[in-house]
Structures
1.
Amino acid sequence: MSNMKDFKSIADDMMSGIAVSERLKAQTLSKCAKKRRLVRTVLAPAAAAAVVLVCVLAVSAPQPDGEDTPNVMMATETASALMAGQERDATPEQAGEFLDGALLMPGYAPEGFTLHGIRLAEDGAYKRATITFSDGESYYVIIEETRQAASTSEGFKSADINGINGYVKSSGSAARPDTEAHWEVEGVHYAVTGSINEEEAVKIARSMK
Amino acid sequence: MYSLPAKEGRDGEIKRMMDAYGDAVLRTAYMYLGDAHKAEDAFQEVFIRVHKMFITFRGQSSEKTWVISITVNVCRDMLRSPWLKRVLLAEKPAAGDTADVEISAIQNDDNRRLFEQVMALAPQLKDVVLMYYYHDMATTEISAALSIPEGTVRSRLARARGTLKVRLGGRLDFDE
């Protein structure tokens, strides 16, 4: 008969072949270095763009809803071609070019959250941009991909995303919310998912125009 | 609070933490995800988050508790959303580029069944069981790590013990 107090040694015996290799450590350090480079190459221009945006808004007529700012991340550079199955870090401009103008950047982010990074992927049949925002402790992710969403809608409820029927599901606790919202526009699947509550997820989604 | 802005300093700290907690992270991920390749994906995501959040760690908990909490969150993320799961698992390792992982030969049928039943627990129950019995965390630490009341931790532990006892046909002791 087993004893629960021995669970650690039992589990370690069962998993004795599962150990961190030097290869895995090296791959992980390499990815950390990539993220660090991304912060330097993306956040600095993004901060500059934010300053420009603030200046532009300051001299513009007041908006009815200040949080629904226009999409300012238009494609201005040519993205390098990706081989099928590869992923790479990108700037917002490169992501816009990569998705052939379908990229939507949010005009709203919950307080404290800033752009953390953008990854691009291509798998022959579709392209995907993954945009991560973080407040330093938690994350949420915006996924934009040129294919239909999975068909399951179990557990989701409808949500209006700028006149489009989207769907949203929330779980977790108030201290640690977990939400995902999905909608499609002209064959492009958009999703907002992560450590945010339902209201914030829908607000982010609606700010993506 | 740590302050290691230099690349070498932060990389050195991440490497130290991978040496110190890497196996615990990888095995915890395996017990959530049930797949060695996915566990390696989770491992990388955990230490990328550790790398990003390193300067925000202020010692509210032990370093190990902090890393294990991140591990649990990463695994939950990977299990919850089919969309996010697809993103996180998009980078499949090339053939022959993965660790040679084999579960050890089964020495004891009771122990094997216990291990399998813990892996089969619902995520909420598995959280507390792994933190309490595998990582030797106190209920107060688990409460802080999961942002749930300590009473909830204790009640989930009790439910998990009851579930395991029933599923193992009574062949389980809890002597401390």
2.
Amino acid sequence: MASQPDELQTVIQTAVSSPRPATSGARGHSRRRFGYYRGLVYFFVMPWVIGFLGFTLGPTLASLYFSFTDYNLLSSPKWVGLTNYAALLDDRRYKAAVIVTIKYVVIGVPVKLAVALLVAVLLRETSKLVSVYRAIFYVPSLLGGSVAIAVLWRQMFGDPGLVKSLLALVGIDSQGWLTSPSTALSTLIILEAWQFGAPMIIFLAALRQMPQELNEAAMVDGAGTWQRFWHLTIPLLTPIIFFNLILQMIGSFQAFSSAFIVSNGTGGPVNSTLFYTLYLYIQGFGNLQMGYATAMAWVLLAIIALVTGGLFFSAKYWVFYGDSQ
Amino acid sequence: MFTRRTLIGAGGLAALGTVAGCSGGKSNGASGGGVQLSVIWWGDANTAKQFNQVLNLYGKIDHPNNAKGQFLAWGDYWDKLATLAAAKKMPDVMAFNGDNLPKYAKNGLLMELPKVDLGDYDTSGLSTGKYDGKLYGINFATEYVVLMYNQKMAEGTGVAVPPDGSSWDDWATYFADMQRHLKTGVYASDDLSPNGNVFLSWLIGRGKQGIWNADGSMGYDRDDAYSWFSYWANLRSRKIVPPGPQTVAAGQAGGGPANNPTTKGTAVYTSDTITNFPANQSVNPHKMSLASCPVGPARRGEWHSFYGWTVSAKAPVDAIKEFLHVWFTNPKAWKAIGFSNGIPVSQKALDLLSEDATGPAKTILQFLDKKYPIKPVPIPGAPATLGSNFDTAFSQANDAILSGSSSVDAAVKQFMNDSEQAFG
């Protein structure tokens, strides 16, 4: 008896090689075969489908419905139309959260990508130690989102903290970075930039793929290191920069844990670390305003979609693909 | 061989199994045909050990009924409970506080408690467990805010501790005197300006009902807030309490006994509820002692809000009655809990615990002996729609002052605006 893959191959070969229409008998045979494999396909796909329907699509649609309701988890939701969305416009803390998040994204993402690109360029050279350095530089990305690192950050930038103590040693009298509204966000941006490992790996892979002939030709033409980097490497990397930019931008809009841990869930001092998602959590679980929180979530989705769309639109002006004219 | 129908059927069963696995903490049938009560509270492993002793005791007394407990940290507890409420899977018996009882009672999730035999439990304090005139919760004990201090450091300064009944100004004077004998970097007191419990004592002492009134309206005015923030700003400027950023940092670290400067040896005095005295003592290597909360211009500042058991609206009534009876009247239960939930309101329980008290329990009893019977002012439950809005407004005003980004005047103005919005 032939094995099943052989049988399948026979069926396919028959279908492909036969110049005449298959007889009804052959068609029934292949249909039974495909029916058998389709059953297996359903079987293997089913866990994902159940997960998608039950844990992604269902909750997503439910949250859309809740965003039009007054829902406090303790009683049934009551339909209030666009009230939650309108209330966002009058919410002083909501506006603060939007501003903090935009600052975080606009400053944090470019800084993170710049650091990632810089380190990737430095690691491009092949050496025995490169893989070790690469692993070392990637470690913060594995640990950076963890609670432990956020706690460590609080110890370093708090008052008294390691950074303050080190600055004091060289005669600089600073206050705790995380305890001052003017500097608290910048410490979280540093934490974000420190987790540059993932975009760095992607940049590094792209740099390794770059054709050396172009670089060598530019050298022959007398281009210096900076000129080659700026006029050759960067343009060739723009698709990768664009890819990383989209990923990091979306991730930064959704940042939560660092601010939650560092501010003990308050977004303080004085709203200076009140990320959008943190305020959403405070409204949803602190105040049990789940309808309001879901409205916030949908507005965030719209903002991210809008910014992503804008970036895609702008891409035709600054992203250069190999096949573009 | 698999058919499409059997595969879809298997998938459906798997999905049902998954959903069934998500079920929460409802009362179940206990082995032997009884009822198993599900009990939930917030706290640490030590509290769990004590509570589980009483749960086991209940299982022996009310056999074949029994109780199964679970506990969470404070920060996770209310998220979990709200989620269970949304899923209509609330446990039978739940620890609650006065901030949350009204909104759950208002939504019909709690049972109006049946008549329970509570022995010699002093029922005069039960008003804090009421909502809309109906009793939904029974306090574990009585608790109120006290001052706690490092006894060795305080005695080392040679300045006499103010007697019971001293005012806020008396305490400020005492702290200033003490500060002169302390080394640099050590402060007479923790900065208590961000402590909502102490702010509540301040308001009670000024004759107010509390942070909110019984009708849910705002319980303080601009003068109350301004005088509060100014009192602490004054101590801060005289370096009697730690610098503002250090206080912000302690709050960011989560506050609590582990993070207060008295535990760290950088302040002599701090404040907490008497319930938390054992926890404060357990993390402080030095012997701590207790002093009464300062007295306000109108009256003493001790207050008492709800902290105790409530019951799910769908819990089995007979088992609940017996559970509460065992919890509040059984001497073994009193022994197991000790002073962990506050000062017992049963005289028999207090007498029993006095017999062989040691450590923090002995300190609490010595403190109680020195005082005339304190009758803390009962605080009504929080307005059901307040949420965390007061806490947010209060912490923001404090952060603004402590970080130096705002004057007391400006912070109070913002605080009052936010408060008016919070209380609607």
